[in-house]
Amino acid sequence: MIKSYYTVFFIILIFFMTSCTAQNKEKDTYVVIETRFGDITLKLYDDTPRHRDNFLKLVKEGTYNGTLFHRVIENFMIQGGDPTSKNAPAGKQLGTGDMGYTIPAEIVYPAHFHKKGALAAARTGDEVNPQKESSGSQFYIVTGTVISSGQIASLENRMTKQKEQKIFERLVGEHRAEVMQLRKNRDKEGLYELQEKLIAQTQLEMKESGPVQLTAEQREAYTTIGGAPHLDGEYTVFGEVVDGLDVIDRIQKVSTDRSDWPKDDIKMTLKIVEK
């Protein structure tokens, strides 16, 4: 009798847990960018919630509607989200407009990387933004290039050198006050000693973390559809194109001026969709 009770209780418990799981499972979030070249459907990642929620907020408020893809570079990316691009006159300098706030970085690497169709947040450079915080509104979609399997090793070597350089630059930034004081005092010996110290520290960090090695998923993507691997780990990737890669291909081929602004405006309208 007791055994039967526990059996029934266990079955009820399993049913309850299953029901709760099904009810609590969140639906994937999709946003469509409508352009004169066609629609681009984006899937937003759940493990970058701050970027996802901010993007959805701006879409709901209509912030992006009427803005432009203001920077288009073939075989690299298309960029938009500058609120000042709405009704911007020809020749206006674009790319600095924002919402007045930044978003803390959510770099989930190597799970999310810069394959073709990756949706990522633009940001200012490391020299003024070492925390890699994202723009409050600007984003880009990667078009990139395809890399041959034979180029993977050299790519990993370049990315390893880039990683080493970034570590050294970060360490120099952390010792900026000391560097400036040594320069002010014209202490060449002190500068040399500090340089050697930071080089040794860089090498130690590199030894502990190891060289860059692409995952199997990265290798597959970069050698088939392509991407921009040199951006990996540096910007927050918070979604990807699930429909409309042909549209971003058409956009990236438009004629642009010296500032990479398409000569014929490419306006966008964004809306949230359920799938």
Describe the 3D structure:
The protein is 39% helix and 17% strand. With 275 residues, it is of the alpha+beta class. It folds into two domains: 29-146 and 225-273, Beta Barrel (Cyclophilin); 151-209. The chain has an eight-stranded antiparallel sheet with strand order 3-4-8-6-9-2-1-10. The chain has a two-stranded antiparallel sheet with strand order 5-7. Strand 3 (69-73) and strand 4 (77-80) form a beta hairpin. Helix 3 packs across helix 5 (188-209). It is globular and about 60 Å long. The termini are far apart. Residues 20-25 have low confidence and may be disordered.
Distance between the termini: 48 Å
What is the tally of helical segments? 7
Strand content: 15-25%
> Per the principal axes of the C-alpha atoms, what is the gross shape?
globular
**Number of strand segments:** 10
CATH architecture of the largest domain: Beta Barrel
**Tally of structural domains:** 2
Which regions are unreliable across 5 or more consecutive residues at pLDDT < 50?
20-25
Q: How is the topology of this model organized?
A:
Blueprint: H1 2-24, E1 29-35, E2 38-44, H2 49-61, E3 69-73, E4 77-80, E5 102-103, E6 118-121, E7 134-135, E8 139-142, H3 152-174, H4 176-184, H5 188-209, H6 216-224, E9 237-243, H7 245-252, E10 269-273
Antiparallel strand pairs: 1-2, 1-10, 2-9, 3-4, 4-8, 5-7, 6-8, 6-9
Helix pairs in contact: 3-5
